[in-house]
Structures are given as structure tokens and as C-alpha cells.
């Protein structure tokens, strides 16, 4: 039986370590993309021309025309007064820039064990690298995100030199869900990669809509995107002053409020709580009011983990959060994501079978073993709950 319900609330700082643009450098990165491939991104021309016209405002007022939020907010004001919304080219522009700068997860050799050539001063030699060291690809930037997604799904991954398979932990103690303010598909990219590399009883994914009953049946974690997603540009809510909730994503807000109300732990990653985002404050307040009235389990902790270069982010949270079990940690997101250690174990065939608590899982893994994995098998499981406790304890000790 699930004892804890943890909701992760993600801001732009969560994805930034992968090289994705944030509000302050979005325009600069989009120009690099356009000038490097004018034919491929010809539709950027209209967007960049409009942005250039906005510079007229600087003749009269203080305006940051290099910040995409300010640029789109000016455009949004005009659109609102005309009873329209920001035009499609701008939505595609946002989606294209983010998609381009989301790096792929690559693996030179997709086998669980791969050879790596090393060179010394005298000779070259090859060493075997265990599959669990490259399970999330060769780009180290992805490893922390891979661990994170594996933990969100409560997975154990098993394999040997020829095959990999994942299974869900039976009767997990913690149920994880995610609410994101980001447009990117970072978490979905990890799922897609694991689906390519590993066998499983179903396609690994997040629940994105109430109508996806197959996901509900499996009890998979929610991924709620309050501003829309690049895989559906028409639903994108531009980062503007109005932050209007489109009908197409209203369900996302309804689910977000419910998840926050039911949460026993809320963990904020990479979100600075800017003053312009009053709607986030209202969402949090309304959710916890609902929790009190509907008698959900009590909130036990509210943790914020984000990089704060000048102390302003902590000041905003300190002014906003009155909860006694609120904690703030100023650190890089990479430090948190990489903190979950992997518990690697070696199991014989019969031990793997005993590890399966449900007949269905046992039958599935039995077929997997008969299909090629014999003798000793390795399993790896990442402990996010334990890692979070240790991370927060260490952060308090060194504060």
C-alpha cells in the first residue's frame, strides 16, 4: 500500500543543465538556430522581424527586449485587446527552439555491455563497461535525469551481457507525480530511450490525460504540463503576463490542483518563484485549502531545491511559505539528480523469479529468462526516497 504521495514541481532550472534555453537566453539561442539554418527555420524570419519592431518601446520605457517573456508579453497585450491570441508562428517558434536544443540520448553500442578502448603511454587495451554504467546513454548530462525517471516509475532494471528488462517494484511505498511549468519533453525522452533499450510489460510513459485509461490501470505517474508541451504546439501557453489557461489544457490545471491537495510531500526543483507568476501561488494556496476541506493526508514537507545566485529566490520563498516543514537548498539541480545511488545486486535465475511477487510478473520474467538470460543476472534499483533524505540532511549540515 502506498504510504507517501510525492509531487515534484519543475521549473526551467530543472532542464537547463541539458542546455535548454531559459527566458533570459531564449532569443539569443533562437537567433543562433535561425542564422545557422535559414532555410530550415524560415518561419523564424517573421517572428524575429516582429521582435525587432518591439525595440521601439526602448525609446520611451525600460524594456528588456532580449528576454522572451517580456517580448511575448507585449505581443500578448495587443492580442488580448483584439480578442485573439498570439499567432501560430510564435507558438511553433517556441516549440522548435526547445526541441532543437533538447539533446538526444545516444549510445554508441546499444548492448548492455560494451567495449571501450583506453590508451596508455605504451599500449591500447579494451575494458568492459557494465550496462548499468551506460544505461542512460553516453552523455553524462542525461544520467541524473535517467535515475530520476526510473525512480518516478518505481523501476528495477535487470540484465546480463545480452538483454535488459525493467519491472515495477511490487507494492511501492511511494507514489510519485510531476507538475511541470516547462514545455520540453525531457522526461518523455528518457522513457522513449528506456523503451528502446529494455523490455517491459508495457510501453513506459507518463499519464498525460484522464482519458488514457490504460495508463491509469497501470498506476503510472502523472506528468502535468501547466503551460502545454512542444509535442502539441497548439496548446502552448506563451510565457507572458496573462498566463491565460486555454480550454485545451484546463484539465492539466484541474489535475495539478488535485495532485497537490493529495500530496504528503511537495518538492520544487529549479523554480525561482518569480513575482510575475502569481498564478502559481494561487494554485498552491487553493490546493492546500482543498486538502483541508476534503481531509486528505497532511502535508509533511515542502522542499525547494534550486540555484540562487543572489539570494533573491530564497527571499521570495521565505516571504511566501509559512509552513513549519519548509526547507530551501541553494544548489545546482545536477547535484540533486545525481544523488540517488544505484543498488546493484547479482541474482541467480531462481532468485529473480522469487523477487517477483505477482504471478503475472513471474511469468513474464520467466519467459524473459528462458529467452536468453541464464545463470547470474544483475539488477539495479535507484533509491530516490533515501537519496532525498540524505541530500536534505547533508544540505542542512553544511548550511
What does the model show?
The protein is an alpha/beta fold. It has two domains: 4-19 and 138-340 and 380-398, Rossmann fold, CATH 3.40.50; 26-101, no CATH class. It contains 15 helices and twelve strands. The protein has helices at 12-15, 26-36, 44-54, 68-81, 88-101, 143-152, 186-197, 213-218, 250-262, 278-293, 312-320, 333-337, 349-355, 359-370, 384-398, and strands spanning 4-10, 114-119, 124-129, 155-159, 164-168, 174-180, 223-225, 265-269, 301-306, 326-330, 342-347, 377-382. The strands form three sheets. The protein has a six-stranded parallel sheet, with helices on both faces. The protein has a four-stranded antiparallel sheet with strand order 5-4-12-11. Strands 2-3 form a two-stranded antiparallel ribbon. The protein is globular and about 65 Å long. Mean pLDDT is 83; it is low at 110-127 and 355-375.
Name the CATH architecture of the largest domain: 3-Layer(aba) Sandwich
Please write the CATH class name of the largest domain.
Alpha Beta
| The CATH superfamily title of the largest domain | TPP-binding domain
Task: Evaluate the radius of gyration.
Answer: 23 Å
How confident is the prediction overall: mean pLDDT?
A: 83
- Count of runs of 4 or more consecutive helical residues: 15
As a percent range, the share of strand residues is 15-25%
How many distinct domains?
A: 2
CATH topology tier name of the largest domain: Rossmann fold
Helix content: 25-40%
Q: Strand count, sense and closure of the main sheet?
A: 6 strands, parallel
In terms of per-residue confidence, which ranges show pLDDT below 50 for 5 or more consecutive residues? 110-127, 355-375
Question: Could you tell me the number of beta strands?
Answer: 12
Name the overall outline: globular
Strand order of the largest sheet: 7-6-1-8-9-10
Distance between the termini: 36 Å
Elements, N to C (H/E): EHHHHHEEHEEEHHEHEHEHEHEHHEH
